[in-house]
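Working notes for the structural subgroup meeting. M.R. asked for a predicted model of this chain before we commit to crystallization trials. I am recording the input and output together here so anyone reviewing the notebook later can reproduce the run.

Input as submitted:
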Amino acid sequence: MTRTHVDLFSGIGGFGLAAEANGVKTITFCENDGRCRQFLSKSWPGVNDRNLLFRRGSGSKSAWVTPPSE
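Returned structure, recorded in token form:
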């Protein structure tokens, strides 16, 4: 089973790079800065950029993220 993760507040992908080195596949990035998004799309061409959290109509730059309940 392949381990995967979603990288929120990605920056230039440091966490994604560390995850990749440890066998964890990044399936989605989410970053607000345009230059960082450009870098991420060139460095990880097959990975989605889900910047939708920052583009919603309300103008809010926050979102609720809850851990899974077990």
